[in-house]
Design goal:
3 helices; about 210 residues; globular; alpha/beta; four-stranded parallel sheet
Length: about 210
């Protein structure tokens, strides 16, 4: 395995190389959060056939990145995955892609293929709709869980006064979750609520 790649159990955690042309090694299922972030060398990227997930900020501020060839199993491109990649001109969108996070692509990226742009916008809108569907029940659960704790929350701009400002985006960005949890299905919820308790305690101390 190339020593420039830090890989564990199918997760590419970091890339330390200086190559202009990068091929993701076989066996990688997920390119992890911030794995290539700030790398100014890579210009051309080819993913492996098994890759399914490109996590949040994975290639953020890779200013030299110009071309990406995605494999046919990629399902998700995370939040701000290619933010700051202002020279990215060419990327293919496989049929397998289901989710594109907010701000995944830099607004200044010179992508000119109308079919690609149309597909990106279509999937981004569908992703946002799904997140909105899941946000309200999750917030209701948070209200219920922490009722009587002395903490006031704001679910939406029309909410009550704020002692600790915990909007939905703050909560989920802090917890570093790849997607808003579905409270009826997601097994990560108990840990998320425990992490949220710690977050609230820290916020209370900082605001006191």
């Amino acid at each position: 395995m190339n020593e420039n790649f830090v890989i564990k159990d199918g997760l590419l955690e970091a890339y330390k190389g200086t190559s202009f042309d990068v091929v993701i090694p076989e066996g990688v299922i997920t390119i992890g959060k911030k794995a290539f972030m700030g790398n100014t060398y890579v210009k051309n990227l080819v993913t492996n056939p098994e890759l399914e997930n490109i996590d949040d900020y994975a290639f953020s501020n890779c200013e030299s990145l110009r071309e990406i060839n995605l494999g046919e199993k990629v399902k998700r491109i995370g939040y701000a995955a290619f933010e700051g990649c202002s020279r990215l001109a060419k990327i293919n969108i496989p049929e397998s892609l289901e989710e594109i996070g907010t701000g995944a692509f830099d607004l200044l990226a010179p992508i000119s293929d109308k079919k690609v742009l149309s597909k990106i916008w279509e999937i981004e809108e569908a992703t946002e709709d799904k997140m909105n569907d899941l946000a309200l029940p999750m917030l209701k659960l948070i209200f219920k869980e922490f009722r009587g704790s002395g903490i006031e929350f704001e679910a939406y701009p029309a909410g009550d006064k704020i002692n600790v400002d915990l909007t939905d985006s703050d909560v989920f960005e802090y917890l570093e979750l790849p997607f808003i949890l579905d409270p009826e299905k997601d097994e990560r919820l108990p840990k998320a609520l425990e992490d949220l308790r710690k977050f609230i305690e820290r916020a209370k101390i900082m605001n006191s």
